[in-house]
Amino acid sequence: MTTRVVAERRERVEAAAKLRVVLYCRKSGPGDKSVADQERVGRRDVASQGGVVVAVFTDNLSASRYRRVQERPGFIKTTEFIRGGHAEMLWTFANNRAHRDLDDYVPLRRICIDTGTLWRYGGRTYDLSKASDRRAANADALRAEEQSDDISDNVNRGIQLALEDGRAHGKLLRGYRIVRDPDSGKALYREPIPEQAALLNEAADRVLAGESLRSVSADFIPRWKAIGGKGFFDQAVLARVLVNPTYAGLRTHKGEVIREGTWEPIFTREKHEKLRALLKDPKRRTHHRGTAPIHLVSYIATCGECGKAVAPKLPRRKDGKAYAPSYRCVDGHVGRRIDLVDEHVHALIIALLERPETAAKLNAREEDEQDVIDTELAKIEQLRADSDAFVKGMAKADLPPDTKARMVASYVAEIEDQIKVAQDRIDALVAAADPLLRDLAGPGAGDRWRKRTLEQQREIIRRYLRIKIMPVARVGRFGELGVEVHPLAAMA
């Protein structure tokens, strides 16, 4: 028997003698970082208790009881794993990571009792067959549900009050800053940043004077960055900023103007109305001025062999006659007729834009994103207030210092994780917004696509498609086209 086989057998025997633990990690926001962090904490904690992790199940969605339309496949697999007798302990980062509310907690408690499975969270192990541990876990579950209810009520109340008072709410717009109380750090109001407000007004005046958005945005971008402006800015974003009622001091809700706001506007009401009349005019068309590309995917599509951009070429035969124009790799790896490639890309884009799921995805984001951002910002504020209150309360509690320290550390860590989840949602919504694509998707997308200028079509392709021209054995009208198109983001 080889040394390796002996070592593997010894490792299996040692693992079999340890407590088998299943980890369930859940994060309710986009991305995997928090789940990975929870798993690292869990593995370290389990190792310190002399256990061995035999399985890890995860979910990246909310466990809120107000989102019951979402199933949690990772949680379902975890309970099935426990019922199958494959683990002696369940580990979660906190009590409320494993359930939505008491309706979910009670069945989980029953599974742990029936199977003799221990439950460990917050640095403590609970044997739910024991009355004392059961009472402690019950109290944690009740507090988690009450906290969720309080946050929901306070968030909704805060949004409604802000709406009635005309106060600013939601994401901070370009050109504005938040003024905070120097002592508490609490947000007091929002005000324009003078240099950025002046540049936005200049852009508005130039557009109203007849200058194209393309020309204004080309000059605007470097100047915006030079004065500390943040955020991506192209002509589509500039157009969206110029017609946004918030810049005229108007409070909106679900896309409708409700009343005048309490913050200082950047645009006058008169200028705002002129901008909307101009930029929302369906007869408006954007025209090229000066040199512009004349092919759909030149310098956008890449060579499938070396990854370099392809360029348009007009090759000639030895007798001087020209071949059909083609996209060619600068190193000569690939070449394909321009008309065949463009025809293929046009057809694919129209098919993607007319898919119901593409339009649904974009429309849902447009209608819901502001409400979600308002909710998440209010939730963050409430969570911070709850954390401060808990820490102050624990300082006065009649408990041993080490117990208080453990409870505060566990509670604050959970609150910070929830704050990061809320901030992740806000960041994802802000980054994902793109009116250029939203205006295209849905029934009749083909007609709208064909009416776009070549420059606009190329910009959409640049953002949402990755095109590769691959080497093939035979090219031409009856040969293999060899063009790979990979949709990204909302078009995927």
Task: Explain this structure.
- Helix content is 51%, strand content 14%.
- The protein is of the alpha/beta class.
- The strands form five sheets. It has a five-stranded mixed sheet with strand order 2-1-3-4-5, with helices on both faces.
- Strand 8 (250-253) and strand 9 form a beta hairpin.
- Residues 29-33, 63-70 and 285-291 have low confidence and may be disordered.
Could you list some keywords that capture this structure?
3-stranded mixed sheet, 492 residues, 5-stranded mixed sheet, flat, single chain, 15 strands, alpha/beta
User: Hey, roughly how much beta strand do the residues contain?
Assistant: 5-15%
Question: Per the principal axes of the C-alpha atoms, what is the gross shape?
Answer: flat
Percentage of residues in helical conformation: 40-55%
Oligomeric nature of the chains: single chain
The helix count comes to 15
Strand order of the largest sheet: 2-1-3-4-5
Largest sheet: 5 strands, mixed
Distance between the termini: 53 Å
Radius of gyration: 29 Å
Helix-strand pattern, N to C? HEHEHEHEEHEEHHHEEHEEEEHHHHHHEE
Mean pLDDT score: 78
Q: How many beta strands in the DSSP annotation? A: 15
Structural class comes to alpha/beta
Low-confidence stretches: 29-33, 63-70, 285-291
Protein name: Recombinase family protein
GO molecular function, one term: DNA strand exchange activity
Domain Recombinase: 173-285
Pfam families: Recombinase (PF07508), Resolvase (PF00239)
Quick gist of this model?
The protein has 492 residues and is of the alpha/beta class.
